[in-house]
Write the structure tokens for this entry.
Amino acid sequence: MGRYKEFDKEAVLHKAMLVFWKKGYEAASIPDLLEAMDLSRSSLYETFGDKQTLYIEAINWYKKWKQAKRDILVNATSAKSGIRQYFEIHIDSALDGESPKGCLITNAAVGMDSPDEQLNALIRERFDELEKSFYELLRKGQETGEIMPEKDIKTLSYLLSNLNHSINIVAKVKGDRSKMQQMIDMVMELI
Amino acid sequence: MGRYKEFDKEAVLHKAMLVFWKKGYEAASIPDLLEAMDLSRSSLYETFGDKQTLYIEAINWYKKWKQAKRDILVNATSAKSGIRQYFEIHIDSALDGESPKGCLITNAAVGMDSPDEQLNALIRERFDELEKSFYELLRKGQETGEIMPEKDIKTLSYLLSNLNHSINIVAKVKGDRSKMQQMIDMVMELI
DNA sequence: CACATTCTGGAACGACTGTTCCATAAAATT
DNA sequence: AATTTTATGGAACAGTCGTTCCAGAATGTG
């Protein structure tokens, strides 16, 4: 047997993800990625194939990485407090100065011209998952009597997922935490 | 005197705008632009300077071009019906198959890495204008008694502008008109 | 018609794009 | 230690990027 890989694949994938996140697909050049990943050209191509494949893998990694945030919705006992908590963390991370602003998947959605089918599916899937998470939590809320049965929770979950998207956008140009929070407060009145 | 320009500057600018809109700044190459504008390299550089400047001009042109839609908000007599009409048209144009999907300025906002100051200002300005238009209409509604005085119209206008943004996003990956409309209906309950 | 001015097409530029290839270094097995 | 397998670094690739430049065609004025 020959030698093993000297780098941790997930670690370098994480660094690649950060570059894509910050710069976008087109603007993230191979030299940019190589420098961040601290890899040689050959190792990158040997390990990940090509730029497009690396991008897909980076997005999948991002999904896994952000899964924790969605788990709040899945595991919450109260619908209202779960949603509140979700948005609190979401707003925090959207305005956090350390990570790139916004959301990698939202960026990917907006940035795609005539999209690769795989990428398109990935984005749609993610959007649907979020909406579904909201829906499931609201449905449980209706079952336990926390939420009135006549509420249109299907539209509500759509509204909430849309607010999630828009927070990702406005965070990129001007982040005003209190405005975002007040907006969530207002929407909570509908639940 | 020598000969005059043979092309209509605004007409070719419009075509350039469509290319930027569809492909995004990075992916829109000079050959792409030239073909759409039906211009020679020299004419483009002589008339518009460089790609970045052309992009800025294209965005400004887009603003002018889309002004008509915002005028609905400015000229509406009833706040509620004005907002409804605005979103009706907005949803229509977001899902319209002829124009590129989404919004050029939203795309620009999401696509920018370390943005040119001029571009950043342009985007912020546009976001603020929209929010302000909603606010003004809501304020008039409060004056005329159409909207209850205790309503927090500042947050409301922020919420509405955010929905505008998110519609631009979701339209790029999957457009469901009825879901969007129902969402607006739901938010109208808050007004 | 001659002159002045401006636009146009195309060649050329260096820099950068993503990708491939290979000789060499490194590690694991026998 | 010899051998086999694999990763590595760097050179090189063709293609495209945005941009510049210039000779010549086209249109205006006198």
Remarks:
- Chain A touches chain B through 40 residues (CB under 8 Å).
